[in-house]
């Protein structure tokens, strides 16, 4: 497994756990539960992508120093 894959396996559950503390259902219209969950999932994946790439680049560039 590559380093990025391992980071994704670790970071995705952490980002879902972090977003679990938010109540995003209050931002949506009544009976729009599935749209709220989809946004929750997409935000979690986006945050995971940003964190994994940051950590991977940070480690890669720190080897040059």
What does the model show?
This protein is mostly helical. The protein has one domain (about 5-60). The chain is about 70% helix and about 0% strand. The protein has 2 helices and no strands. The chain has helices spanning about 5-20, 35-60. The longest helix is centred in the last third of the chain and has 30 residues, at about 35-60.
Keywords:
single chain; 65 residues; mainly alpha; elongated
| Total discrete domains | 1
Q: Judging from the principal axes of the Cα atoms, what is the shape?
A: elongated
Distance between the termini: 26 Å
Which structural class do the helices and strands define?
mainly alpha
Query: Radius of gyration in whole Å, from Cα?
Result: 15 Å
Indicate the low-confidence ranges by residue numbers. Answer: none
Question: What is the strand content?
Answer: under 5%
Helix content: over 70%
Arithmetic mean of pLDDT = 88
Tell me which oligomeric state these chains represent.
single chain
Question: Main beta sheet: strand number and arrangement?
Answer: none
Helix and strand pattern: HH
The count of helical stretches stands at 2
Q: Give the beta-strand count.
A: 0
């Amino acid at each position: 497994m590559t380093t990025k894959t391992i980071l994704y396996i670790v970071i995705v559950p952490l980002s879902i756990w972090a977003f679990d503390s938010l109540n995003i259902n209050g931002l949506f219209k009544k009976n729009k539960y599935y749209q709220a969950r989809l946004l929750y999932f997409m935000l979690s994946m986006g945050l995971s992508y940003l964190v994994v790439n940051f950590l991977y680049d940070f480690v890669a560039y720190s080897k040059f120093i």
